[in-house]
Amino acid sequence: MQNKRQIGFMIAILVGVFAGLVIGWLLIPAQVKNAPLESLRGDYQADYVLMVAEKFAADQDVLTATALLRDIKPSDPAASIKEALILGQQLGYSPRELQLITLLQTAMGASSNAAPITPTTEVTP
Amino acid sequence: MTENRGSWYLLTGVIIGVIIGLVLSVTVIPVQYINTDPSTLSAEGKEAYRIMVAQAYLAEGDGGRARSRLALLQDVNPAEVVIAQAQSMLAESGSDARARALALLAAAVSEPSLSITPLPMLTPMAVEIIPATPEDAGTSGAETPQAAANTPGATNTPRPTMTPQPTLGSPFVIQEEPTIICDPLPAVSLLQIIVLDSSGQAVPGVRIEISQATGGVETFYTGLYPEISLGYADYLFQPDAVYTIRIGESGQPVTGLSAPVCGNDAANKTTYGSLRVVFTQP
User: Fold this and answer.
1) For residue A53, what are the domain limits?
2) Is the reported ipTM for this assembly greater than 0.85?
3) Which residue of B has its CA nearest to A46?
């Protein structure tokens, strides 16, 4: 009898934990805040890539561009460019903007073929 | 004697479990958010985003788009936030280039009519491009990221016509003898610098280098006080120190600047005023 009660108590706790997680995750989730850059929605990430491409067009700094792209796609910065190109076409980016992104992609590809890109922070002038 | 406690222990277990579950969902294993918008970024994320907006603005000179991008962060007063970030960056001896970009972005936010000359493009632009297709990019249709849906996304802002900004050109030179400000006596003694172009327009984002005879060089930028003037910058004078300043990259150094003595106060201590120096392009 005592064992039965203990087992029932443990099961009740497990059911409660499950219910608590469901409530915490789905019903009353915490307010979205302190999100990292990599959590940005695809179109925002595409715009971020465009900003990096615009900066790159002016300074030709592949290492910094790679580091900046790593902020939104830590595992594979180059993939963020591909996704930006696809989304850019869907969202109606101008040919010039798509070209800027393509040039960044080309430069990063050339750079990675030439030598491994080391993640870096800001390269100060 | 038989104890009959009913089934309340089950309810107790459930309540304890729910509390544990809630605590876990908030602290240990919180919800991992994806597809967020820039306004939900952490403070560091927002700072990085502002810097990116500023650097893109510097490269493209598109104020309208920069303001649209900045608005995504939903700051109450974007210009003030950008200025504060630039000042903080300069105080922490951060990147000069980034601080300058932020100063110019703040000026663009405060003064929508402002236009700057975009940085020259080092990348040769082809006339025709062949944009990548999903197949080229190696991403299947199922993996295609979602397009902007319910919430406003990063949209393409029409590009305004860019007019050249006269930051590049003749070096800035001192316009007239510095003005001494003693009446009313300022609370702090400042070196006030105003930078104008050849047509008399205030110029933001101009680099000012200040050094003392005893050593040490500091850098700051115009445009961080748009409520005064886009071409305004100031520096806190140290009494009895003599400074040399240089405006822009090619300006001639102006030497012998120091806090002007305005007399003595009631306690017979020397009081110092401010000095206003106007620079212009010939």
Assistant:
1) 37-114
2) no
3) B154
